[in-house]
Amino acid sequence: MEKLRVGVTGASGYAGIELMRILGRHPNVELRAVTSRSLEGKAVVEDMPLLRHIFSEDFKFIKSDPKVQAQMSDIDLWFLALPHGVAAEYARELLAAGKTVIDLSADFRLGSLERYIEFYKSEHPAPDLLKMGKYIIPELFDISKNDKLIACPGCYPTSILVPLIPLMRERAVSTSGIVIDSYSGVSGGGRKADLTYSYCVRNESMTAYGLPKHRHLSEIEEQLSIAGGTDVIVQFNPHLSPATRGISTTITVPAKFDGVEKIYEIWSKYYAAKKFVKVLPSGKYPDTLYVSGTNRVDISAVYDPRTKNLVITSAIDNLIKGASGQGVQIMNLMFGFDEGAGLL
Amino acid sequence: MEKLRVGVTGASGYAGIELMRILGRHPNVELRAVTSRSLEGKAVVEDMPLLRHIFSEDFKFIKSDPKVQAQMSDIDLWFLALPHGVAAEYARELLAAGKTVIDLSADFRLGSLERYIEFYKSEHPAPDLLKMGKYIIPELFDISKNDKLIACPGCYPTSILVPLIPLMRERAVSTSGIVIDSYSGVSGGGRKADLTYSYCVRNESMTAYGLPKHRHLSEIEEQLSIAGGTDVIVQFNPHLSPATRGISTTITVPAKFDGVEKIYEIWSKYYAAKKFVKVLPSGKYPDTLYVSGTNRVDISAVYDPRTKNLVITSAIDNLIKGASGQGVQIMNLMFGFDEGAGLL
Amino acid sequence: MEKLRVGVTGASGYAGIELMRILGRHPNVELRAVTSRSLEGKAVVEDMPLLRHIFSEDFKFIKSDPKVQAQMSDIDLWFLALPHGVAAEYARELLAAGKTVIDLSADFRLGSLERYIEFYKSEHPAPDLLKMGKYIIPELFDISKNDKLIACPGCYPTSILVPLIPLMRERAVSTSGIVIDSYSGVSGGGRKADLTYSYCVRNESMTAYGLPKHRHLSEIEEQLSIAGGTDVIVQFNPHLSPATRGISTTITVPAKFDGVEKIYEIWSKYYAAKKFVKVLPSGKYPDTLYVSGTNRVDISAVYDPRTKNLVITSAIDNLIKGASGQGVQIMNLMFGFDEGAGLL
Amino acid sequence: MEKLRVGVTGASGYAGIELMRILGRHPNVELRAVTSRSLEGKAVVEDMPLLRHIFSEDFKFIKSDPKVQAQMSDIDLWFLALPHGVAAEYARELLAAGKTVIDLSADFRLGSLERYIEFYKSEHPAPDLLKMGKYIIPELFDISKNDKLIACPGCYPTSILVPLIPLMRERAVSTSGIVIDSYSGVSGGGRKADLTYSYCVRNESMTAYGLPKHRHLSEIEEQLSIAGGTDVIVQFNPHLSPATRGISTTITVPAKFDGVEKIYEIWSKYYAAKKFVKVLPSGKYPDTLYVSGTNRVDISAVYDPRTKNLVITSAIDNLIKGASGQGVQIMNLMFGFDEGAGLL
Q: Do D54 and D23 contact (CB within 8 A), yes or no?
């Protein structure tokens, strides 16, 4: 089979690095270009020594430039690992040139322009493309080869929507009174020279931040509302924890049924055949350590007869299933590769 | 002023170590004996090298023995840093001999014997003493010099009750629909040779455990019910985080008032004059790093107009304000010492 | 190509887990059995949740038993991830039954029985097999398909011998006055319920241990003596650092040449074509973070004109290049697979 | 006794923070001013929330300005926690105004101007003051009340010179062939918004840096040469380890005597009466965890009969005994306070 020719733009951040690590040894892909505004001309392995056994010194960052990239005829698909706002500009040029775009940013995650403006506090640079963007959690949404603009979900939303959407669709839990607490590893803050993310400030530090209206709340509520068939508003409390990777999410939701049987039935229906969602027995808890470096979501649930709540827990690697791995999984499915190619 | 003569029994665990660290340089106290079943005859600084500049090699653990300790006429007050169930047996002997007892275990935290049996799944070894035990959060409860048996609150409960009890007493928040997520550092699991608490299992690990009925829930609900004047049942979700110390707690509670003004008024009334409770402005978040090594509780709150919830956050050092430091603070107040003696 | 049928005995430790992770997705291998004394009958993914996407619940540990394993006709090669002393007993039975054995323990690393007894302080359980054992660093020693008993080097020795052996062979550095300081991540201590390896004891802890005669010194000196053509005695100072993985090694050795040119020439001759040894330019330092999860050794050197010493630094992942990955690399070369199969 | 009135200039770094923590509760000191170029007007507890129970919101940074500070008649002693080069300018003004200066920077550590220029690669801003500066390790050097300009040793040098200077003075070890490997926690790199010190870059990272001529080597060699009565040149290999605090140092030095008896005799003579140096028995190893938060140096030694080397190990908290704590200890001794005041 001929290899798919791909590029990564904005490859200098943690998601970009992870994309290079995966795509650099993906059996069905040829990684032909990686771009960066700040690292143009630098060898990839200089900036990311972890990849020294995968890339040679000759593999270098080229300059990020939407018009130039649109003209590169030897690349079929671009991953965008760019900040929101910036990604949309690249998407416009690349789509116009007929490329497929898998966007890790937030620019095409929302169907509602108003919601984008409300949560991201800026105009959208390409509102006309919003409709074209397909928000894809690969275990839950259909992907078509004709899709040209894929919006990868955010890291927190992935850990929340994988367990909740099936229960919402099947009307198995309440759509109100939902409280979600998530703790993220520090890489979620990005690769930045910022005192806030320095070792001595984050080590031994557990703390909430950005309450009560984190940007990811916008896509969480939009997707839960679609799945639940009604406006869903949730309390989402994000935190930081002293780990490099991982998101640990705990969802308290008023139950509609006693016990967890119904919940597990639904999850089994949706996920028994899915490679990257593991449903743990009630009483076993997902642990970020055990999904670290993998594309898995582990999920579980207990029922509390005293409160009539379900407590659902999940864990992901924020950089893989929460970003780059999920993007590659989507690509695999779009192009008919093995779903786990490059991801095992 | 003559020094108070104290002893610590069960001094080999993390709370015991912390007690020795504090009491060993407390200006009003003479630490005359520390006991351990496993470390009898061993020098304290052998087992706890951190204390090498405080104790000499001659200061050794003696054998834990309730009857022998009761006869030690040169000790006025005993701290119990023993497992629940065991502590009560020591308390009985020591009280009979006229000693004052400050108990860090759970044995005298609950007023209700039924609740103890339900949550601790064993008979209580001294049910006749339950009434004598005074559960003391020093900022919230009166302490009398006549009290002879003090029950120190648990670590999770301290982080939860300090912010919530004033709001419950003042009827300022809902008494139902409360969800509490806490993340604890690993020292909360105790000083044990257990694979679960080994470095490689806890590093990079965030995970829930013990849902939905952690033992500490018993005292949380008992105290909130007393404060709120009605039966309060809450969802309490404990977790572990890769840190040595600290508890980060996030409480979502349906609000009775728009905004946080009323909440901050109440907190100010209760805590403005308190040395060890710091109320942070709304929008600043308590951080375990910044209470580490201190006896403080930092608390804060935001109001979410979309959900009509208050989100309250708090942080403590689980071994200090969550255990040993609070015990010493109580002793300071009982005996008329400066509240912060040994704790600053 | 038909797949090689392999088993892992003693699969419950960190090296065993890593072997399962690698072999479970190795393209040329069928992993047919994993054994454990303590985990017999337990599902592998129960004990090692990280592998949930690789193995099903049906893949279970069988009982470790050398005689039974020797009779398993469907397994061609056994990896031994057993303690020293125990491994030799398994090797004897398996070799007698015609199996190939790749041993991660120390039992067959030394040519000298006296040295074994001196450093391991016990009799050797199979001294007659010592000669049969081939000590293999795959970049430095020839491997033959006829070899039946492979001794994988220890973790510290790998980090030391890869940079030093070529320099010894080429007589490019002094054979005396060598000082080696190594820091290891905590996984080097094994998977044990031991207070010494608990999170709260290791976090924030840097310390030496086992001076001056760590067991690994025996193979370090034996191999350096062979390479240098004279008895080589070195100072080897091992330490622990608060990390899960990695060994950082710094070797100070009196130089024979000014500058590093000669050193880099030799390294280039030995390693330019080697996938898993990366020679960094002088002034760039190997970092355990950047070899973590890989089978690489990164090495570098600076020359100090003031002391006339070379300072050589290296980094490996102690569980991969320092144990399981290197074992698989050896298997790949023995059986004509791609050297990096399963390791990229 | 009247309190000593002190100020801290450059209080925004880790050493400055630690000074404020210690001086803010020192029984013999009144901390009257803290200065910062970047934090002028900001409340100290805003920038350093750990101190919320020690300082009120009213205690604010004032602007750093040598001329203004020199005119502040209510301050007798200034601590300088400034970068090298800058500190000397403040020292000149403050000394001219009759203040006592305790300088944590490198500006007055060296007696030799040439050495300063060689290692710090810049002119010295106040070479005329070099002679006035007294380099003080309080356990090893006499302090006079007439001293006006104290140079506090660097962190690495403290961990090296405390064990070695007595042995050099007593001619008990070789003065050549010395190799020193040190691992430092990340706070040693300073409080900077720098990707190099970010959590995700330092976590799980062990690496050498700055070989072979770290700036601290200048004072190490100068002091060892004075103590040994001959030019001493050493190999000093600094590294970083994933911890917030601590320096772990291992010194390999050719022995002059068999065994460690002579070494321990000398250490006992120098240190038996010293509160902040603990000599551990041979075979026990200093551990950064157990000096963390203390002003102690723990030291130990083993003798290796095979190599005829002594291997000396030491551990300090780099921010306390390696910087601020040692500065306060010096102040205590200069002004007749208890040596451990504020430090226990």
A: no
pLDDT (tens digit, 9 = 90+) per residue, B98-122?
999 999 999 999 999 999 999 999 9
By C-alpha distance, which of C213, C283, C287, C203 is closest to C246?
Answer: C287
pLDDT in tens, A133-182: 999 999 999 998 899 999 999 999 999 999 999 999 999 999 999 999 99
Q: What pLDDT does B145 receive?
A: 83
Q: CATH classification of D4-152+323-334, choosing from 3.40.190.10, 3.20.20.10, 3.40.50.720, 1.10.540.10?
A: 3.40.50.720
Strand, helix or coil at B135? strand
Sign of the CA dihedral B13, B17, B23, B26? negative
Q: How many other CB atoms are found less than 10 A from the CB of residue C293?
A: 18
What tens digit of pLDDT does each residue of C140-151 get? Answer: 999 988 999 999
Nearest CA in chain C to D285: C208
Cα nearest neighbour of A289 on chain C:
C50
Window 133-172 of D: residues touching A by CB (8 A cutoff) are none
Across the interface, whether the CB atoms of C296 and A53 are under 8 A apart is answered: yes
Predicted local confidence at residue C223, as pLDDT: 98
C-alpha span between A37 and A35 (Å, rounded)? 7
Kindly tell me if the per-residue pLDDT of B1 is higher than 80.
no
Which residue, chain included where needed, has tokens 């967890």? A260
The CA distance from C24 to A344, in Å, is: 10
Domain boundaries, chain C: 4-152+323-334, 156-316
C67-73 long-range contacts, CB within 8 A, separation 24+: C67/C93, C69/C7, C69/C9, C69/C33, C69/C35, C69/C93, C69/C94, C70/C94, C70/C96, C70/C97, C70/C99, C71/C97, C72/C7, C72/C32, C72/C33
Which residues of chain A are within 8 Å of residue C53 when distances are taken between CB atoms? Answer: 275-276, 278, 294-296, 340, 344
Question: In this predicted model, what pLDDT tens digit does every residue of D273-295 receive, in sequence order?
Answer: 999 999 999 999 999 999 999 99
Q: What is the number of other CB atoms lying within 10 angstroms of the CB of residue A122? A: 10
Q: Tell me if B4-152+323-334 shares its fold with B156-316.
A: no
Is C294 an interface residue toward D (CB < 8 Å)? no
Contacts of B202 in chain C (CB under 8 A): 199
B156-316: CATH topology is Dihydrodipicolinate Reductase; domain 2 (3.30.360)
- CA–CA min distance A195, chain D (Å): 4
Given a cut of 70, the residues of chain D with pLDDT beneath it are 1
Chain C neighbours among D 219-278 (CB < 8 Å)? 233-235, 237, 239, 241-248, 250, 252
Interface test with D, best of B48, B50, B205, B278 (most D CBs within 10 A): B50
Considering CB atoms only, which of C50, C340, C344 is closest to A294?
C50
Q: What is the pLDDT of residues A42-71, one digit of tens each?
A: 999 999 999 999 999 999 999 999 999 999
Chain B neighbours, 3+ Cβ pairs < 8 A: A, C, D
Work out the mean pLDDT of chain C and round it to a whole number.
Answer: 97
Residue A268 neighbours by CB distance under 10 Å: 12
Mean pLDDT for chain A overall = 97
Residue-wise pLDDT for B15-29, tens only, equals: 999 999 999 999 999
pLDDT at C344: 86
ipTM above 0.85, yes or no: yes
pLDDT for position D75: 97
Q: Let me know if C155 is a catalytic residue.
A: yes
- Which positions in chain D touch A190 (Cβ < 8 Å)? none
C307 to D252: CB separation less than 8 angstroms, yes or no? no
Please indicate, yes or no, whether the overall pTM of this predicted structure exceeds 0.95. yes
Query: Three-state SS for D135?
Result: strand
Distance of CA B79 to the CA centre of its chain: 13
- CB of B209 within 8 Å of a chain A CB? The answer is yes
Beta bridge partners of B237: B181
